[in-house]
Amino acid sequence: MAAVVAPPPPSAAPGGGGSSSRTESYVDTKRKDDVRIANITAARSVADAVRTSLGPRGMDKMIASPNGDVVITNDGATILNRMEVLQPAAKMLVDLSKSQDATAGDGTTTVVVLAGALLKHCLPLFSPPASTPRSSPTPSTSSPSRPLRS
Description:
Layout: H1 29-51, E1 61-64, E2 70-73, H2 76-82, H3 88-103, H4 108-122, H5 139-142
Antiparallel strand pairs: 1-2
Helix pairs in contact: 1-3, 1-4, 2-3, 3-4
């Protein structure tokens, strides 16, 4: 015996109203941008955590584990391996660091800081464009000096 499932009524569309055709769909671009911004922010926080350990004046980090062990290091790979990262986009930076370590054996902190800097410059792409007044072209630049003949 096969069960028959009726399609949802048209009033159940996410847009609140009925949909006149199957090709119409509800697209929430604001929520997509909010999720992307949250992912970028989480990944940048991981990059910022290791950024201060880079360079000749790099600072040491003290990492305490849940069982009470304390590690003090300025090695980016150790910092990232000991961090408990739950956010998926931030985990991607940790995986990026592990991949860099497996491939080259060095540069784990640099690759994460570089990725964080790239993400920082991506954030303005999600903000609405600033309204700039359009200047109308001046008559001397918009029309030729002599009439065109056809």
